[in-house]
Design a protein that fits this description.
CATH topology: Porin
Largest sheet: 16 strands, antiparallel
CATH architecture: Beta Barrel
Strand content: over 45%
CATH class: Mainly Beta
Strand order of the largest sheet: 1-2-3-4-5-8-9-10-11-12-13-14-15-18-19-20
Radius of gyration: 23 Å
Structural class: mainly beta
């Protein structure tokens, strides 16, 4: 079985610059007017004397000063990649990140899109398409997350309590074996989440969303009900207790959303805040296996430390998610690393912590390392807490003590390097190393700031 300290969820070890946007036509950045948001809030202007270098210039793919983005001009960065860890074997694939201004750049926040596809020697396929799009003058914001996985991944039980994750269950008077560490699972997974926001005043938005999560072909490889004593996994015990099929289930629902969005960029913010509150209802008549509701809240803010160097700042990120009524399927419960961009929980494998409620917080110090702006650095810390319900059903014979939020908190931290790939799109190549509790650690390589 995979130990809790195994490699990170996206095992990208080698990357190369594969594509870059051609220089946009327009006024040089040092002659451009001060940039303001759609509601008149000044955005930090680009300073070519300090931040005029990127990989496109290093490789001779662009020359001259940085230019303002052109409306509709797609700026793209592609990472051909391979990697290896016990969860995927050897993985091959590609990830692309793109940025584009969908309206006048002085009044419209840059939109961002990312897509990835990977094949592994364990017969897995991982495909995703994610987007944060703002229309001209930020009148509308569209948040999208679509995935299709043919996957295998361990689960570690519910809550952030002490290991072993499953201390054994008592079913119909028969004690079961403890399952320390990871509990291996295989499953197919489809996720389609799309939320549309309309600006109502200033930086405030209201929105409606649709959310679909389907899991099928679930194989609980650590489960053995015929053993003596039986090996009962957390997934099986929770599913039986809550009335879900252990082999397939779905969650389909709609959401009401309120958003405050004042960031100056969606890939590499230098200022502003992002505040989101969402209430999702998943009725059975819409396709859910059981009726439930889920409450989600998220906050991101960016505090500048230097007017001369906009990339010198402290960033904060926190989110919380909880099943408020009914019950959600096990693999659809709030879990670390399953945020919209799969970025939370550096230092732990994806899904390492899962529960009926989860709270996550992170702080990151970002700073330039070279005067040209080509290279920067980060130092970060994060913490996670998750709860699990008390499973106590005499008829079923299952007895498992619950864990409340903040009964146990798991910290992590690390350092990273940032290389400016395209300063016109403000697109960074991100390389981080993080360490979590119990020896968990991971190396992460991607495009665009973590949050």
């Amino acid at each position: 079985m995979r130990p809790p300290h195994s490699a990170p969820r996206w095992p990208v070890l080698v990357a190369a610059l594969a594509a870059g946007a051609a220089p946009a036509r327009g006024t040089p950045q040092d002659a451009a007017p001060a940039v303001v948001s759609a509601v008149g809030v000044p955005l930090e202007p680009h300073r070519p004397s300090l931040d005029d270098s990127d990989l496109l210039r290093v490789f001779g793919l662009r020359s001259g000063p940085a230019l303002a983005p052109t409306v509709g001009k797609l700026m793209m960065f592609i990472l051909p990649a391979f990697g290896a860890n016990p969860n995927v074997g050897v993985a091959l694939g590609a990830a692309a990140t793109a940025a584009v201004a969908l309206g006048p750049p002085d009044k419209t926040t840059i939109s961002s899109f990312s897509a990835s596809a990977m094949l592994t020697t364990k017969q897995q396929f991982l495909g995703s398409l994610k987007s944060v799009a703002l229309t001209s003058e930020n009148d509308w914001e569209l948040l999208g997350d679509a995935r299709f996985y043919v996957y295998s991944q361990p689960t570690y039980g519910l809550g952030t309590g002490a290991t072993p994750v499953s201390s054994g269950f008592n079913i119909n008077g028969l004690d079961t074996a403890a399952l320390p560490g990871a509990q291996e699972m295989k499953f197919d997974f489809v996720k389609i989440h799309e939320t549309v926001f309309r600006r109502v005043t200033g930086n405030a938005y209201l929105g409606l969303g649709y959310h679909l999560d389907l899991h099928w072909n679930i194989v609980d490889e650590s489960l053995d009900t015929s053993a003596s004593p039986p090996a009962i996994t957390s997934h099986y015990a929770y599913s039986v207790f809550e009335g879900f099929s252990p082999t397939h289930y779905g969650l389909s629902g709609v959401s009401l959303n309120a958003l405050y969005e004042s960031r100056d960029h969606t890939l590499d913010p230098h200022s502003g805040s992002y505040l989101l509150a969402s209430w999702r209802v998943n009725p059975t008549w819409l396709g859910s296996s059981r009726t439930s509701s889920i409450l989600y809240g998220e906050a991101r803010t960016y505090v500048s430390l230097s007017q001369e160097r906009p990339r010198h700042l402290i960033a904060f990120w926190a989110y919380g998610q909880a099943v408020t009524t009914g019950a959600a399927p096990y693999l659809d419960l709030p879990a670390l690393g399953y945020d919209n961009r799969d970025r939370s929980g550096r230092g732990y494998p994806q899904g390492r912590f899962r529960g009926t409620a989860l709270v996550y917080g992170e702080a990151e110090y970002r700073f330039p390392l070279t005067r040209s702006g080509l290279v920067g650095g980060v130092v970060f810390v994060n913490a996670t807490t998750a709860s699990r319900p008390t499973i106590d059903d005499p008829a079923l014979g299952v007895h498992e003590k619950g864990i409340a939020l903040f009964d146990s908190v798991k910290p992590a931290g690390g350092i990273g390097v940032r290389i400016m790939a395209d300063n016109q799109a403000r697109m960074n190549l991100v390389m981080d190393y993080a360490i979590g509790a119990g020896g968990s650690n991971g190396f992460y390589l991607t495009v665009g700031e973590t949050f």
